[in-house]
Amino acid sequence: MNILAKLGFNVHVQLPYGFLINYLKAFELDGDKRVVQKAWNYLNDGLRTNIYVCYQPTTIACAAIFLTTRQLEIKLPDKELWCGVFDADYSEILEISYKMMTLYDRGIKINLPLTKEELQKLIEPSKASRKHK
After folding, report:
1. Nearest to residue 38, comparing CAs of 63, 57, 75, 13?
2. Which of 9, 21, 55, 131 gets the highest tally of CB atoms within 10 A of its CB?
3. Is the pLDDT of residue 10 over 90?
4. What is d(CA 1, CA 9) in angstroms, rounded to the nearest whole number?
5. Which stretches of 47-111 are DSSP H helices?
6. Whole-angstrom Cα distance, residue 69 to residue 81?
7. Percent of the chain clearing pLDDT 70 (strictly above)
8. What's the CA gap between 60 and 67, in Å, rounded?
């Protein structure tokens, strides 16, 4: 509660979705459903990181476009040109891209429970430890 009070309860974060659509229109990529969906997915996945509170929404939108076009092998204009037009720093785009891509490198846990009984066995020890506290 002290943190919220220090912030004056101002926790509004501007989201980059609108910028993304406008920038895709500028690149004439808004008609390609693969591009739009993949870039939108990157923004959604970015919600699992701290990028929304560390970077400007314009830069986050540019990073989603950057990742999308790289994955789909779509050539963009010179980086200095388009980054400047969209008021984004290329080094920050790379930082955001790295943070987003680390989400996909976490690996899958093996030995996941497959049945309800296996899941119960996995959960029981943590429930028991909470009861004793």
Report:
1. 63
2. 55
3. no
4. 9
5. 51-54, 57-71, 79-85, 90-102
6. 16
7. 83
8. 11
Q: Which residues, 6 or more positions from 71, have their beta carbon under 8 angstroms from its beta carbon?
A: 38
Cβ burial 63-95 (10 Å sphere, 16+ → b, else e): bbbbbbbeeeeeeeeeeeebbeebebeeebbeb
Helix (H) or strand (E) holding 120: helix 116-131
The answer to whether the predicted template modeling score (pTM) of the entire model surpasses 0.85 is no
What is the per-residue pLDDT across 49-99, written as a single tens digit (0 to 9) for each? 889 988 999 999 999 999 999 999 999 888 778 888 898 999 999 999 999
Q: Count of alpha carbons within 13 Å of 79, Cβ hemisphere only?
A: 12
Whether 75 contacts 28, CB under 8 Å: no
Q: Which two tokens stand for residue 15?
A: 């989201």
Q: Give me 40's structure tokens.
A: 């939108």
Asked if 17 contacts 40 with a C-beta cutoff of 8 angstroms, the reply is: yes
